Amino acid sequence: MIVKPHPAPLAAALSDCSAAPAKARSLSAQLRLALLCAGLAVLLMPMRGHAQAAPGAAQALAQATEAQAPQPPSRDFAAERKAIVDSRAWTDYRYGKAEHDCYNSFFVTHCIDKAKDVRRGELQVLRKRELEVGEAERAFKAVERDQAQAIKRAEYEAGQPAREANERASRESFERKQQEQQLRDAQHQADAPQRAANAEAYNKKQADFDARVKAAQEQGAQQARQRQENVKAFEAKQREAEQRQKDVDERRAKAKEQQGQATTPRPFGF
Questions:
Q1: pLDDT tens across 174-222, in order?
Q2: CA-CA-CA-CA torsion for 107, 113, 116, 122, nearest 10 degrees?
Q3: Packing angle between helix 50-68 and helix 7-15, nearest 10 degrees?
Q4: What phi, psi does 53 have (nearest 5°)?
Q5: Rounded CA gap, 75 and 132, in Å?
Q6: Which one, of 147, 120, 128, lies nearest residue 30 by Cα?
Q7: What whole-number distance in Å separates Cα of residue 148 and Cα of residue 70?
Q8: Is 269 left (phi over 0), alpha (psi -120 to 50) or beta?
Q9: Helical residues (DSSP H) of 49-191, grouped into ranges
Q10: C-alpha pair distances (Å), 30 with each of 14, 54, 150, 154
């Protein structure tokens, strides 16, 4: 049995999400509050809709991300390195000038050694300054990298409830489709006898129709043969009638001929 959370307490908790990260003192606390608000938004999505539940969590996460966003460096490391290079060049220049001037002095070696000491001290100061600038820049980049990783991790963790909800919805949709398919299969199997009966009735009706068509064809062929026989019989009768009429005509003509010969006078009396 699935117990659904009541929307009222969750909605009340979600309403404070927009102000909660700003009230947190530390960045980690802001991230935790943002993740909590994102989780509450995911829980309220099915009940209130994505358009109503998401803004508070999105605003909370945006505030926490903005708090964790890398800040521009308070020092211009490139300008400081350039100043160190310029100072080193200026030190070398002054040492060269001092060494040149020492050749006009009575104690040349002592003067040059003194100039070297001054140059060495200045270079040591510049070297320490260079190391400090490099260390500060590396520390800033490390903090910047850690903040970027923390933001990515926070975004991933904030999206985890939504991903789990999507996976759960996809899994439930798949299971629902499987159940619907099983119901369709069961209904199909249950309708199999009726479909078989319908097919049998259709086949019987088709067979009866084919039998009637065949009978009609045979009857038509029989009638055609009968008509041909009737035509032949009629033609035979016609020929017989014509032959009889011809015989009658011939007998009449012959009788007339014989009668004409009997009435004609004979010269000798016989």
A1: 999 999 999 999 988 888 888 888 888 898 888 889 888 888 888 888 8
A2: -100
A3: 40
A4: -90, -25
A5: 12
A6: 147
A7: 7
A8: left
A9: 50-68, 77-102, 108-190
A10: 15, 18, 12, 10
pLDDT tens digits along 50-106:
434 344 444 544 554 454 444 555 789 999 999 999 999 999 999 999 999 998 888
3-state secondary structure of 74: coil
Q: What is the 3-state secondary structure (H, E, C) of 80-119?
A: HHHHHHHHHHHHHHHHHHHHHHHCCCCCHHHHHHHHHHHH
CB 21 within 8 A of CB 33: yes
Buried b (16+ CB within 10 A) or exposed e, 137-174: beebeeeeeebeebbeebbebbeebbeeeeeeeeeeee
Q: What is the DSSP letter of 21?
A: H
In this structure, which amino acid lies at residue 137? E
Residue 102: both structure tokens together? 């020492």
| Three-class SS state of 219 | helix
Question: pTM here?
Answer: 0.39
Q: What is the DSSP letter of 73?
A: P
Distance separating alpha carbons of residues 149 and 65, to the nearest angstrom: 11
Q: Please check whether residue 70 is in contact with residue 147, taking contact to mean a CB–CB distance below 8 angstroms.
A: yes
**Amino acid in the structure at residue 180:** E
Tokens of 260: 């004409």
